[in-house]
Design a protein that fits this description.
Elements: H1 2-16, H2 23-33, H3 38-42, H4 48-56, H5 63-72, H6 88-95, H7 102-106, H8 112-125, H9 129-140, H10 148-164, H11 168-185, H12 190-202, H13 206-223, H14 226-242, H15 246-262, H16 269-282, H17 286-299, H18 304-316, H19 320-333, H20 339-353, H21 358-375, H22 378-394, H23 398-411
Length: about 400
């Protein structure tokens, strides 16, 4: 949160005043790349405090001193600065999900932090979040020297990172900073729009989810970014079904089914079948929904989402024999869900086997609900809270039930 507050202040400052490029940026960039301290670089040349001011552009450095610092760091004097948006070709490659030649391209960038920024994007899209965190810590030290275009991209990547590690507040905050800068630059960033759409979908805000999805879809079409166009259309289908707009969802689902049956290079058909299952559930055609979820499970490398949808189908349609059998099989195989999905699996297991036990209540209060709130997952908050209210009512703990209900009302 401390880094976010600094990022927020930097954004406000940068949007309100002009940013001047200066030689100190090159010095700091190379010093950090070599992992040298201010003392090590300034030794026999100037005071460490003077070097710090030079790096920040707060000291009018003469040619002689600058030459000594450049020589010590093996830097070449730069006569002109390229202030164009060098990120644009990389953005297009991200939109088209094309990571070939990435390392070759990034190595041609003049500053090391720019190379690191592109590497950060590469790590984000391959979901290597351990390395992402290490790379991000390095970039944090160059944050105040980035251009607005660079900051916008950097904050977007941070928002994506925090979303993946279930930090809903930080994810929202960084996405919002990125969006604020994009609006100031009049920059249309469809990846940011799609991420905002996914976030608002989780928050159960269908209006904003559809708004940002349509913005993203229009931009992805102009880049002929097939993968993300399909992601947008799948998200729209999901939102239409949630809002019971089945007449709008059905033709889009049929179109996607035809397309993905013909060619599915990004393996999106399991997600389509899962959403098709939701569609059949809305029509109360439970047998069709079951078959569709099973098809998604068979085709999915890690079928956590369709599995949970199938569990929920059995629970809501009161098919308890099938539900218990499935839960038993999953427990026997020790299935590797990610954290939030694993908690949902535990939720259904407790609901089926120990619905009125204190173990279930403690699980909801100490594990399930806190994570759902931290993640800003409104759907899960409602699911867990309503079950907790029901538990308290059945045990005649009406005051506790009212408190949970009031908290649920506040998040709605």
């Amino acid at each position: 949160m401390k880094n976010y507050q600094s990022a927020k202040k930097l954004t406000q400052l940068r949007l309100s005043s002009a940013f001047h490029l200066h030689p100190g940026i090159i010095i700091r960039d190379k010093r950090l790349h070599l992992n040298l301290t201010l003392n090590e670089v300034s030794a026999t040349i100037c005071d460490p405090s003077t070097l710090s001011k030079i790096e920040k552009g707060e000291y009018k450095v003469n040619a002689s001193l600058l030459s000594k610092l450049f020589k010590k760091l093996d830097l070449k004097v730069v006569d002109t600065w390229d202030v164009t948006d060098w990120l644009e070709p990389f953005r297009i490659r991200f939109y088209q999900y094309d990571f070939s030649c990435f390392h070759e391209l990034k190595d041609k960038l003049p500053l090391y932090y720019q190379q690191n920024l592109i590497q950060l994007g590469f790590l984000s899209f391959h979901e290597n979040f351990q390395s992402f965190k290490e790379q991000s810590d390095v970039l944090q030290k160059m944050c105040e020297f980035m251009s607005l275009h660079e900051l916008q991209f950097y904050f977007y990547l941070l928002g994506r990172y925090y979303e993946k590690i279930y930090e809903g507040e930080l994810s929202q905050n960084y996405y919002q900073l990125s969006y604020t800068i994009a609006k100031e630059l009049q920059l249309c960033d469809p990846l940011l729009y799609l991420s905002l759409a996914s976030y608002y979908s989780m928050k159960n805000n269908s209006f904003k989810a559809c708004h940002f999805t349509n913005l993203a879809l229009a931009q992805f079409k102009s880049y002929y970014a097939i993968k993300y166009m399909i992601d947008c259309e799948l998200l729209l289908c999901h939102e239409y079904i949630k809002k019971d707009l089945l007449s709008q969802a059905h033709p889009l689902l049929k179109k996607l089914k035809t397309r993905l049956n013909y060619s599915d290079p990004y393996h999106q058909s399991p997600k389509l079948y899962t959403i098709y299952g939701h569609y059949y559930v809305s029509l109360h055609e439970y047998e069709k929904a079951e078959n569709t979820y099973l098809k998604a499970i068979k085709e999915h490398a890690i079928p956590s989402q369709p599995l949970l949808s199938l569990i929920q189908l059995y629970e809501t349609s009161n098919q308890m024999i099938k539900l218990k059998k499935l839960l038993y099989q999953l427990k026997q195989h020790n299935f590797d869900f990610n954290h939030p999905k694993h908690l949902k699996y535990q939720y259904y297991y407790h609901l089926t086997h120990h619905p009125n036990s204190d173990i279930f209540r403690i699980f909801l209060l100490k594990k399930a609900l806190p994570l759902a709130k931290k993640q800003h997952d409104t759907e899960s908050i409602h699911l867990f809270s309503k079950q907790l209210v029901k538990f308290y009512q059945q045990n005649r703990k009406y005051k506790e039930a009212l408190n949970v209900f009031l908290q649920l009302y506040e998040t709605s």
